[in-house]
Fold this sequence. Notes:
Shape: globular
Distance between the termini: 37 Å
Bound molecules: adenosine monophosphate, zinc ion
CATH topology: HIT family, subunit A
CATH superfamily: HIT-like
Amino acid sequence: xxxxxxxxxxxxxxxxxxxxxxxxxxxxxxxxxxxxxxxxxxxxxxxxxxxxxxxxxxxxxxxxxxxxxxxxxxxxxxxxxxxxxxxxxxxxxxxxxxxxxxxxxxxxxxxxxxxxxxxxxxxxxxxxxxxxxxx
Length: 135
Ligand code: AMP
Ligand code: ZN
C-alpha cells in the first residue's frame, strides 16, 4: 500500500513544523509556501477528499481554520487570507489526504498556487512560532 505523506506526518514518522494539533486535527507549515505563513490544516485520520470526510469533523474544521487564520494574520502581519482546498487530481490536489490551505495575503495578486518556493528551513520555525503566539 502506498504511504500517505500526511498520515506519516500525523503519526510523526515524517517531520513537520506544527502550529496546532488536537485529537482530530493537525496544522503544519507548508514546505513550499506560496506566501509567508502558508500552512495546511488536515485531519489526523485519512480521508482523501472533502466529500469522504465525516460531517462531524468538517463542522469543527471551519471554526478551527478561522481561529488559525486569525493567528496567522497577526503572527505574520497579513491583512487577509485565502482558504483553498483542492479535491481530486484534476483540481490540482497532489496529496490525497484532505487538507485546507491557509494562505496569509498582503496584497492583491494572482496566487501562483503550484509555484511555491521551497521554504527556508532556518526561518520557517520562527514563522510558525509567530502564528502559535497568537492562538
Ligand atoms: P495540494 O495540491 O492541495 O494537494 O497541496 C499539497 C501541499 O502539500 C503542497 O502545497 C505541498 O507544498 C505540501 N506538502 C507536501 N509535502 C509536504 C511536507 N512534507 N510538509 C509540508 N507540506 C508538504
Ligand atoms: Zn493520509
